[in-house]
């Protein structure tokens, strides 16, 4: 089978940074001496890789022994969480993505300037939960319907977005907001350009293949968005974590397969999948 790879795919610099920080901490403090507040990134194979090296990723802040080393994962954490860690005399190792930090700082700044802060994103995503902790009463929306019911009227809005959202989704919601009578709307683009580039490359590839495979964690927001965008292009699309999830029936009538991967997907997963397809 012929396989075409998306030009932009796999690890972004934020994920590479988080893994590097985690591995350095293990080397410095020793195996089982660093506890992460949840999975460092949303990818099962990388999580297992770090655990084999000696990282504990199941940490509950209240049960970590005092004086331990606690890793803030790439999605970041709220100021309250960090303050609680310091009160418990925990040594903080910060692996927060720099773009997530930018969104955190922007939320705080907008609040200090008197704006009603609005975040466009999935309220259940760890990044969003962390970012909105930097100001009180942040309104989180993620659909056109929520614009009509969730936003306070005739006020000054300061808007940020989840870093992994697509520009099209952000633009759609912002367009609906600007149709309404707000005194002022201030928008800061907090989208990750690396994620945006991967989305554009995946969409471009859809027209060249018979079937698309999007590789990445099933709970990864940016991988889910890649899948949604490929499906919106009309491509026959499968979201899989690894080669072992593949079923030959997925390519029964296909001659050319396209492969892309989320920003948390390692290159070894991508190459193993490509080798499997090419061997068919």
Spatial strand arrangement across the major sheet: 1-12-10-11
Name of the CATH architecture of the largest domain: 3-Layer(aba) Sandwich
Number of helices: 10
Separation of the first and last Cα atoms: 6 Å
**CATH fold description of the largest domain:** Cobalt-precorrin-4 Transmethylase, domain 1
Radius of gyration: 20 Å
Tally of extended strands? 12
The CATH superfamily of the largest domain is known as 4-hydroxy-3-methylbut-2-enyl diphosphate reductase, catalytic domain
Q: What features would you describe in this structure?
A:
- It is a single chain.
- By secondary structure, the chain is an alpha/beta fold.
- 41% of the residues lie in helices and 18% in strands.
- It has a 4-stranded parallel sheet, sandwiched between helices.
- α8 runs parallel beside α9 (221-232).
- It is flat and about 60 Å long.
- The mean pLDDT is 94.
Annotate the secondary structure layout.
Layout: E1 2-5, H1 13-29, E2 34-36, H2 44-53, E3 55-56, E4 69-72, H3 79-87, E5 91-94, H4 98-112, E6 116-120, H5 126-131, E7 139-141, H6 144-150, E8 156-161, H7 167-178, E9 184-187, H8 193-206, E10 211-215, H9 221-232, E11 237-240, E12 256-261, H10 267-278
Parallel strand pairs: 1-12, 2-3, 2-4, 4-5, 6-7, 6-8, 8-9, 10-11, 10-12
Helix pairs in contact: 8-9
């Amino acid at each position: 089978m012929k396989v075409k790879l998306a030009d932009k795919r796999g690890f972004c610099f934020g994920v590479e940074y988080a893994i590097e920080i985690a591995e350095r901490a293990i080397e410095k403090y020793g195996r089982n001496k660093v506890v992460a507040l949840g999975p460092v990134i949303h990818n099962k194979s990388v999580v297992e890789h770090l655990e084999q090296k000696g990282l504990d990723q199941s940490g509950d802040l209240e049960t970590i022994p005092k004086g331990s080393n606690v890793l803030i994962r790439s999605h970041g954490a709220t100021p309250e969480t960090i303050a609680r860690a310091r009160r418990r005399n925990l040594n903080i190792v910060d692996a927060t993505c720099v773009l997530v930090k930018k969104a955190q700082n922007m939320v705080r700044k907008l609040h200090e300037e008197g704006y009603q802060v609005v975040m466009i994103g999935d309220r259940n995503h760890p990044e969003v939960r962390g970012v909105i902790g930097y100001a009180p009463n942040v309104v989180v929306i993620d659909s056109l319907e929520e614009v009509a019911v969730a936003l306070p009227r005739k006020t000054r809005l300061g808007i940020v977005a989840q870093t992994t959202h697509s520009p099209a989704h952000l633009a759609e919601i912002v367009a609906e907001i600007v149709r309404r009578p707000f005194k002022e709307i201030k928008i800061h683009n907090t989208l990750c350009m690396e994620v945006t580039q991967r989305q554009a490359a995946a969409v471009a590839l859809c027209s060249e293949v018979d079937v698309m495979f999007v590789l990445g964690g099933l709970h990864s927001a940016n991988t889910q968005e890649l899948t949604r965008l490929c499906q919106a292009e009309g491509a026959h699309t499968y979201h899989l974590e690894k080669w072992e999830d593949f079923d030959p029936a997925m390519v029964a009538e296909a001659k050319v397969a396209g492969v892309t991967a989320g920003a948390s997907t390692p290159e070894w997963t991508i190459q193993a999948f490509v080798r499997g397809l090419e061997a068919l």
